[in-house]
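Record passed on underneath.
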Amino acid sequence: MIWPIFIIHREAFHRDNLILDPSCFEPSSSGPRWIDIDNCVWKGPEDLLDKTPLHSVSEYRTNRRIARLFHGDILEIQNADWKDYKRALSKLRTDANPLWNVADRAQRLYRLFLESRISDQDWDSIR
């Protein structure tokens, strides 16, 4: 049942611009964890970015009100884009002790980066 969670969620959002972390819905979760809306994307690769994709949680994706709140015309949380991939690549370069395979992660980010629609003006800013 989503409604008790939704009420708690709404209170945290109004007070601190926080939303319930999707990982709280996993069986291994120890309880609610709140994340700032600036640290979220609506759709994006779950294991590559420093932002949390919300669309991966069926309770968020299938509830029209919640989807409208996050991705629609209220909070307007966007899908991951090339700027997110670029930031994640930059962070890979500066992480001295990564907990993952850097080469694999970088290759996957480069692939997403290359598949992105990037204007000529944005390419100039990347160089």
Summary: The two ends are 49 Å apart (CA to CA).
